[in-house]
Specification:
It is built from eleven helices and ten strands. Helices cover about 40% and strands about 15% of the residues. The strands form two sheets. Strands 3-4-5-6-7-8-9-10 form an eight-stranded parallel β-barrel, surrounded by eight helices. Helix 9 links the parallel strand 8 and strand 9. The longest helix has 17 residues. The chain has one domain: TIM Barrel (Alpha-Beta Barrel), CATH 3.20.20. Helix 2 crosses helix 4. With about 270 residues, it is an alpha/beta fold. The structure holds 3-methyl-2-oxobutanoic acid (KIV).
Length: about 270
């Protein structure tokens, strides 16, 4: 898809462009986005991926968790983001209980892709069979392992995962299986940096970390956390990029540069 921005031809990134970035050792930048204005700002700065995360339940809707988010919410916000971006690749979350079976997952993913312009859907957990089924239907999949916010009622709190050998081995094994099932990307949330490094080195697909150390192939943060406008305290792994910036664009550019230069996250923002 070629579009025009400021008179120049801008090509929207594809799944193969993102894979090529890992191949050539270029760090991948990703931020969450939920509306057209922030989408355009991030896009103009050059953020590679915009993730329409179900974190919108917390930062946009003011909910206590991501669980109340519906597929209709995701379609609405993803459409707003997709309308305003030119270059960035767009991933949308499948929210809680919208992928209990491969067929239901495919029906909901189809809505996201047809009605909102998502280029890929993200699913939490080792959903191997569902991933394989979606990929067979032509739906690119991003896996999500480590801390799984949709399981908050089982976890009790948002804490670091994969700290014991048994838990770490399970995450490694799940990551391999997701890749084998056809996932094109993997988000690793809140795991020790050493574990994320091993997984990033061993998988051929790009691994995007959040609270997972500097050695992942790319980084994602919740936009409102890094702009320090989220309700409540931002997680330890996030950084306030507004602190030394005179505008939102400057803060996003500082994040973009820090990730591309392997300077974010530092050990202070890792486990
Ligand atoms: O919903 C979201 O914003 C996410 C990121 C935290 C990875 O899944």
């Amino acid at each position: 898809m070629n579009q025009t921005l400021y008179g120049n031809a801008i090509k929207t990134l594809t799944v193969t462009d993102i894979a090529a970035m890992k191949q050539r050792g270029e760090k991948i930048t990703c931020l969450t986005a939920y509306d057209a204005s922030f989408s355009a700002l991030c896009d103009q700065v050059g953020i590679d991926i915009l993730l329409v995360g179900d974190s919108l339940g917390m930062v946009i809707q003011g909910q206590q968790s991501t669980l109340p988010v519906t597929i209709e919410d995701m379609v609405y916000h993803t459409r707003c983001v997709a309308e305003a971006r030119r270059r960035a690749f767009i991933i949308a979350d499948l929210p809680f209980m919208t992928y209990p079976t491969p067929l239901i997952a495919a029906q909901n993913a189809a809505q996201l892709m047809q009605k909102s312009g998502a280029q890929m859907v993200k699913l939490e957990g080792a959903k191997i069979e569902t991933t394989q089924f979606l990929v067979e239907q032509g739906i690119p999949v991003c896996g999500h392992l480590g801390l799984l916010p949709q399981q908050i009622n089982q976890l009790g709190s948002y804490k670091v995962q994969g700290k014991t050998n048994v838990d770490a081995d399970k995450i490694v094994n799940d990551a391999y299986q997701l890749q084998q099932a056809g996932a094109s990307l993997l988000v690793l949330e809140c795991v020790p940096a050493t574990l994320a490094k091993t997984i990033s080195q061993q998988l051929t697909i790009p691994v995007i970390g959040i609270g997972a150390g500097v050695d992942c192939d790319g980084q994602v943060l919740v936009l409102y956390d890094m702009l320090a406008i989220s309700i409540g305290k931002a997680p330890r792994f996030s950084k306030n990029f507004m602190q030394d910036a005179s505008s939102i664009s400057e803060a996003i550019a500082a994040y973009q540069n820090a990730v591309k230069q392997h300077q974010f996250p530092s050990s202070e923002h890792s486990f």
